[in-house]
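Ops channel
N.P.: pipeline sanity check, posting one input/output pair.
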C-alpha cells in the first residue's frame, strides 16, 4: 500500500486521483508538483494535496507512488527532470490519453526506472479542467487501461492496478499500440470533430444566429469542445498516425452519405441511420461491453 504519493499535475485527472486515494485510505501523504503555483495553492486549499513539492530529491526521493497527470506533451521533459531524484523503490504511472509516446519517453528518459513505470489511461474525464474540477468519485465504476512494459516488475504492475482499483475503477490491460488505435477512433476523433464543428460556426459572420438556436443535439455533440485545448493538442499530435487513419475512414463514411444525399437515396440514408441507432442503443445498454 503506497504511503507517500506524488502527483505531477493537480488538475482534473491528478486531483481526482489524489482525492480518491485519500478517501480510500491508500495514501498517507499526497504531495503536488506543477507548473502553476496558483493551481498548486488552490489544490492545497481544497484539500486535494497535503503540501506543495518540487521536482527534487526532497519530494521524489522517498515517494512510494508517482502519477504523471500533465498533458502528454509535457511528460518527456518532466521525466528527464525527475530521473536524478527518484528513489529505487518508487513505482510510477501516468494518466495520459496516448501511450506510444509515453512509452517512448520512458525508454529515453527513465531507462533506470522502466521496470517500475506502468503506463495507464483512466477512461474518465470532463469538459472542465483545473483543481476545482477534481472530485473523489471521478473514477468510480470507470475503466482504466494499463499498458505494461515487457520490463515491468510484476509487483509494480500490481501496485498500480491496486491504486486505480482503490479509486473505484475497473482495471484492464492492453498493448500500447492497440490502445492508441482504439482510442483514436472512440475518443480522439470525436474530440477533433467536436472542436471542428464549433470552430466552423464560430468563424461565420452570423455565428450569433446559429448559436442562438442551437439546442440539445448541438449541446450533446459539442460538449467535449469545451475540453482543455493544450491537452487535446498534445493528444492529437502524439497519436497523429492512428488519428489520421480514423479521420480518413470517417471521411469515406461522410462521402457515402454525401452521395446518398446527392442521389436523393432515402433508403440508403435510413439504412445507415438504423444500423447506427441499433449499435448505439446496444452500447448504451452495456450489450457491447
Amino acid at each position: 500500500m503506497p504511503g507517500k504519493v506524488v502527483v505531477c499535475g493537480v488538475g482534473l485527472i491528478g486531483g481526482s486521483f489524489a482525492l480518491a486515494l485519500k478517501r480510500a485510505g491508500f495514501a498517507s501523504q499526497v504531495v503536488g508538483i506543477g507548473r502553476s503555483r496558483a493551481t498548486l495553492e488552490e489544490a492545497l486549499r481544497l484539500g486535494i494535496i497535503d503540501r506543495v513539492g518540487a521536482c527534487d530529491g526532497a519530494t521524489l526521493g522517498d515517494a512510494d507512488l508517482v502519477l504523471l497527470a500533465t498533458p502528454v506533451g509535457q511528460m518527456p521533459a518532466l521525466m528527464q527532470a525527475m530521473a536524478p531524484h527518484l528513489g529505487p523503490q518508487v513505482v510510477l504511472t501516468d494518466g495520459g490519453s496516448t501511450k506510444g509516446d509515453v512509452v517512448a519517453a520512458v525508454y529515453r528518459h527513465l531507462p533506470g526506472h522502466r521496470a517500475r513505470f506502468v503506463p495507464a489511461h483512466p477512461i474518465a474525464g470532463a469538459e472542465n479542467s483545473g483543481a476545482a474540477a477534481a472530485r473523489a468519485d471521478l473514477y468510480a465504476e470507470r475503466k482504466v487501461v494499463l499498458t505494461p512494459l515487457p520490463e515491468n516488475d510484476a509487483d509494480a504492475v500490481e501496485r498500480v492496478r491496486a491504486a486505480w482499483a482503490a479509486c473505484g475503477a475497473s482495471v484492464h490491460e492492453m498493448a500500447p499500440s492497440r490502445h492508441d488505435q482504439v482510442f483514436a477512433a472512440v475518443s480522439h476523433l470525436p474530440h477533433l470533430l467536436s472542436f471542428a464543428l464549433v470552430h466552423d460556426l464560430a468563424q461565420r459572420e452570423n455565428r450569433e444566429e446559429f448559436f442562438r438556436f442551437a439546442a440539445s443535439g448541438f449541446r450533446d455533440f459539442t460538449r467535449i469542445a469545451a475540453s482543455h485545448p493544450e491537452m487535446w493538442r498534445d493528444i492529437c499530435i502524439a497519436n497523429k498516425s492512428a488519428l489520421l487513419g480514423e479521420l480518413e475512414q470517417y471521411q469515406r463514411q461522410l462521402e457515402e452519405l454525401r452521395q446518398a444525399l446527392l442521389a436523393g437515396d432515402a433508403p440508403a440514408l435510413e439504412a445507415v441511420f438504423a444500423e447506427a441507432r441499433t449499435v448505439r442503443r446496444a452500447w448504451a445498454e452495456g450489450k457491447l461491453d
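N.P.: looks fine end to end. The beta strands are 4-8, 29-33, 51-52, 65-68, 91-94, 117-118, 120-122, 143-146, 170-173.
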